[in-house]
Amino acid sequence: MSKISGADIVLRCLQELGVDTLFGYPGGVVLPLYDRFPHYPDINHILVRHEQAAGHAADGYARASGKLGVALATSGPGATNLVTAITNAHMDSVPTLFITGNVTRSLLGKDGFQEADITGITMPTVKHNYLVMRPDDLAYAFKEAAYIATTGRPGAVHIDIPKDVFIEEAEFSWPETINVRGYNPPSTAEQDSIQQAVEIIDQSERPLIFAGHGIILSDAADDLRKFAEKSGTPVVNTLLGLGSIAPDHVLSYGMMGMHGSYWANHAASNADVIIGLGMRMDDRALGRFEDMNPTAKIIHVDIDPAEHQKNLETHVPIVGNVRDVLKQLTNAVQKATHPDWLSWIDDLRIGHRTSMSVPEGPELTAQYAISRIADYIGTESVLCTGVGQHQMWSAQFGAISRPRQFITSGGLGTMGFEVPAAMGAQAACPDRSVWTICGDGGFQMTFQEIGTMVDAKLPVRMAIMNNCYLGMVRQWQELFYDQNLVDVDISQPDFLKIAEAYGIKGIRVDNQEDVDAAIEEAEATEGPVLIDFRVVQQDNVWPMVPAGAALSETIESAEESAMS
Amino acid sequence: MKVSRNGSRQTIAALVEDRPGVLTRVASLFRRRGYNIESLAVGTTDEQGVSRMTIVVEGTSEVGDQVAKQLDKLIDVINAAVLDSTESIDRELALIKVMARPDQRREILDVVEIFRASVVDLSVSSLIIQITAANETIEALTDNLRPYGILEMVRTGAIALIRGEDTTQVVEFEDDELRRFHMESGRIPTGQLPHLSD
User: Fold this and answer.
1) Chain B closest CA to A310's CA: distance in Å?
2) Could you tell me whether strands B126-133 and B118-122 are parallel, antiparallel, or unpaired per DSSP bridges?
3) How far apart are CA B101 and CA B104, in angstroms?
4) What is the pLDDT of residues A223-247, one digit of tens each?
5) Mean pLDDT in chain B?
6) Phi, psi at residue B158, to the nearest 5°?
7) I need a surface site. Which of A58, A223, A525, B76 has the fewest CB within 10 A?
8) Which of A11, A6, A13, A12 is nearest to A24 (CA)?
């Protein structure tokens, strides 16, 4: 068999993996790889403007499509620029592959030009990483890396390749099978634990499901619905679980947690059986762990056994893929209804509607703009967000109804995620309308990617909730730091001039009356669009469970907060 | 080595791939999660490509369980388990250099004999005592030698095996090519490399 260069092997590997899109930025040590790209026209490389954006784009691509997201950067600063994006993708368990070049093997470890110990740096933030020292090892590395990234609890995997490994030649042989001794992703759960769980569920009077990201990652929305319907169990979502059940389903009660609804949080505090499905019992969703619900029996289904008992005492930990486990549970559980429990939560929802409503009044608010956008674009579109108040309002008013509709940075909470992730989502879903709700702070971190959108023809709709503040940080300073506002009023450029500079359409909205027309105009535009919504400057996200408080201590308004 | 502050320690046995970087990954995991390593011993096993780590970590059994699960998550860790101290044999080797004036030497040798340790070095004013035993026995010997003046000492860290037939051994075989990839992965190849720089 003939030998081909390491660069060709890498590209052949990507072909074998079915990768047709990657986001990257060239540099010295990856030149041998880039040199071969023209010979692989079925692999579309999208040139970004900053490697961090390449990483976030791969992340958004994977979240929107369920496929492996791939990003490529050069050594040294190119690689270190990826670190935020790698950490972000891994925190939210998104299946992604990050490829970096490194200096020639003989220069490794000697502080060469553009050298960084990137495998050392990413080690704690990835599921696994590889430093490939021979071209013969590339095929194994790529096959294993993709397998590890996309199975079990998905995550980020990193492959580092020295420059001369791209140049050196070897035979290409794609391994038939993989066997990683130290890695055995579970699927169905042990019968014992299913039995235990079902006994508890069958006897429950106020059961509640916490549905998280795992439902979406394993395409288990349908199984969730069937289980909830058979067992008569209402469902609340974590932030990343939004979309796992349609909000108009009779058993769907919306988001819980720090900015979740009053009724979801109180349902969580008053349930007698809690069934956690594909969620990691984190503090944003659960509030103060000890006081979340001290008496409930907790059943926790997660594919990662290390998540069981990590934060919360679990009565029945179930290790398995949530989709398979839901099928097992649905089979075994008795048909039941809990009308009294549901009407208790319904009453709370009716009584506390206002704390989760779009504010009335003539001023243009972010909540209004977001709800109008959601209403117009419908559920077949994709809604991305950055991090901050606008993110929480998007979760509350975005009408998220289907899995993979909502693309947001949950665990790491990375500002600047909004623009590049939307780019990645658009590349994954060319037929969907992709909107990204941006904070004016976060937008300024990564808006250079508008250039990428223009070149790669990714017509993302960017809606900036421009309140001239780092809103969420200001909210915390107001509530917890005695209204001492420090470094949160941030100026911004004329966003319309930025749109113009990039040659895209820019629309400014100052009033409520102009919102609908702006959305319509944006949707009708062929290329990327930027809408500068100049919204009310001082407004806070309610309800809120302050850090360290229990879910039952959900505060619904500024007045209530002032009293406590 | 004293018993930890809250009074407990856990012994964890992990079988790991014998490849560059494994030790870093494990140590990095402990640092990231905030677990305190009291000792770490690692060595090869009878199976090629597999090494065994014995880690003693400060904490309750809940901590021990979390540590074992987090270790298991690492791709390079084949499996990890907490060893129940009542069901395992724990041993550690220590070398203790003690001040020994000739008139004290007899007493010290008595202590050595009682503990079934041995003397491996002798000088006019000092002795080096070698002992292989469980942690508590080593502690007791050290306590008994301290009055004479311990000049320095070194311990290997505990190793342990479960009693009886059960093992934490791996029986999965790998084909040669795959094993070579796993063992060599990340190791700088020997010999002259074709390219020295750009």
Assistant:
1) 7
2) antiparallel
3) 5
4) 999 999 999 999 999 999 999 999 9
5) 87
6) -75, 150
7) A525
8) A11
**Beta strands per DSSP E along chain B:** 9-17, 37-44, 50-58, 77-83, 88-99, 118-122, 126-133, 150-155, 159-162
Cβ–Cβ below 8 Å for B178 and A179: yes
Q: What is the mean pLDDT of residues A315-334?
A: 97
Tally: H helices and E strands in chain B: 5, 9
Cis amide bond preceding A543, omega within 30:
yes
DSSP A439: E
pLDDT in tens, B34-52: 999 999 999 999 888 899 9
pTM strictly above 0.80? yes
A168, B195: Cβ pair inside 8 Å?
yes
Query: How far apart (Å, rounded) are the C-alpha atoms in residues A391 and A398?
Result: 10
Residue A2: which of A174, A171, A175, A173 has the closest Cα? A171
Quick check: A264 contacting B, CB < 8 Å?
no
Facing B195 at nearest CB: one of A164, A304, A310:
A164
d(CA A181, CA A159): 19
CATH domain A191-354 topology: Rossmann fold (3.40.50)
Name the pLDDT band for A436 (thresholds 50, 70, 90).
very high
Residue of B nearest to A114 (CA): B198
pLDDT exceeds cutoff 50 at B6 = no
Q: Classify B89-155 by CATH class.
A: alpha beta
Chain pair A-B, CB pairs under 8 angstroms:
97
Give the residue on A whose Cα is nearest the Cα of B79.
Answer: A182
| Domain layout of chain A by residue ranges | 3-171, 191-354, 360-538
| A335 and chain B in contact, CB less than 8 A | no
pLDDT of residue B183: 75
Per residue in A124-174, pLDDT (tens digit) is 999 999 999 999 999 999 999 999 999 999 999 999 999 999 999 999 999
pLDDT value, residue B193: 72
Alpha helices in A481-532 (DSSP H): 495-501, 515-524
Neighboring chain A residues of B178 at a CB cutoff of 8 Å: 140, 175, 179
Q: Considering the domain delimited by A360-538, tell me its CATH architecture.
A: 3-Layer(aba) Sandwich (3.40)
Helix, strand and coil content of chain B, in percent to the nearest 5, comes to: 30, 35, 35
Instruction: Specify the CATH number of the domain A3-171.
Output: 3.40.50.970
- Tell whether the model's pLDDT for residue B171 goes beyond 60: no
Tell whether A311 lies on the interface with B, counting CB pairs under 8 A.
no
When pLDDT is averaged across residues A191-213 and rounded to a whole number, the result is 97
Contacts of A106 in chain B (CB under 8 A): 193, 195-197
Which residue of chain B has the CA closest to A182?
B78
Compute, in degrees rounded to 10, the torsion defined by CA atoms A169, A175, A181, A186: 130
Q: Which of B70, B75, B195 sits opposite A183 (nearest CB)?
A: B75
Residue B144 neighbours by CB distance under 10 Å = 16
Nearest-neighbour CA in chain B from A183: distance (Å): 6
- What is the pLDDT at residue B170? 60
* A107 at interface of B, judged by CB pairs closer than 8 A: yes
Q: Using pLDDT thresholds of 50, 70 and 90, give the confidence band for residue B4.
A: very low
Task: List chain B domain ranges.
Answer: 9-83, 89-155
ipTM exceeding 0.90?
A: no
Give the SS3 label for residue A463. Answer: strand
CATH class held by domain B9-83: alpha beta
Is the pLDDT at B197 greater than 90, yes or no? Answer: no
Token pair, residue A541, equals 């996200």
Question: Is the predicted pLDDT of residue B2 greater than 60, yes or no?
Answer: no
Place of tokens 């008992």: A309
Joined tokens for residue B68: 């074992």
